[in-house]
Amino acid sequence: MRSIFRMPSDDLAGGGSLKAVKITPIQLCLVAMAAGINVAGGQLALLLRLPVYLDSIGTIFTGALLGPWFGMLPNLLSGIIMGVTTDIYSLYFAPVGMVTGFMAGVVWKRAKRPLWMLALSVSLPGTLLSSAICAAVFGGITSSGSTVLVQLLAKTPLGMTASIFLVQVITDFADRWISLFLTERLLRVLPPSLKQKWRGESGYGSAK
Question: Which of 36, 57, 123, 204 is a Cys-bridge partner for 172, taking CB atoms 3.0 to 4.6 Å apart?
């Protein structure tokens, strides 16, 4: 059984018209699995008080494999799950992950570039949004290990707002680089037939 949603076509990521997109059961399973990976990564980062978040690995993988609109779904789910269970901050930052997933889908379809450039392209829009949320809603104090860096830098002439932005730039870039690195390695080892099934393709040609 297939679910059909009205959304912009992934092939028209630059701003195309609406058309029916069929979402297969295996794609729904992939989105659910990606959300679970986000939750596991996010919990690990919280447990170890890491200065990165690890809650966008599944998001970036889905965006790279299925395109920008699918890439928005895992962080929406994981943000809600973590927000109502273990980390309320995840609920507020779910839009950041959705932007990250969208950008991952857009960037992955473009010409090959160094991984650090991809990470910068994916992280920057989310960084602007997360900095605004962190400063306006939480005053720079969240559950992330990066909060310690913010509090230390806030005592310098940078002040709170500039400290939040600087820390977000650094930690978001590092987090997205890790996620993109893992995504690239995983896509290399996955069988082409499995990737084509997830994409809903019918042929057996080579897949990125």
Answer: 123
117 pLDDT above the threshold of 80: yes
pLDDT in tens, 119-164: 999 999 999 998 889 888 877 777 676 777 777 777 777 887 788 8
Alpha-carbon distance of 5 to 170, in angstroms, equals: 37
- Nearest CA to 64 among 119, 18, 131, 20? 119
Element holding 5 (H helix, E strand) = strand 3-8
**In terms of pTM, does the model score above 0.90?**
no
Q: Which residues share a beta bridge with 56?
A: none
What number of CA atoms fall less than 13 Å from residue 20's CA on the CB side? Answer: 5
Percent of the chain with pLDDT over 70: 85
Q: How far apart are CA 138 and CA 89, in angstroms?
A: 9
Residues 6+ apart with CB under 8 A from 27: 66, 70, 198, 200
Phi and psi, residue 3, nearest 5°: -95, 140
> Which tens digits make up the pLDDT trace of 158-176?
887 788 888 889 999 999 9
Q: Architecture of domain 21-192 in CATH?
A: Orthogonal Bundle (1.10)
- Residue 69: name the closest of 158, 161, 7 by CA: 7
Distance CA 28, CA 112 (A): 28
User: How far is Cα 38 from Cα 57, in angstroms, rounded to an integer?
Assistant: 6
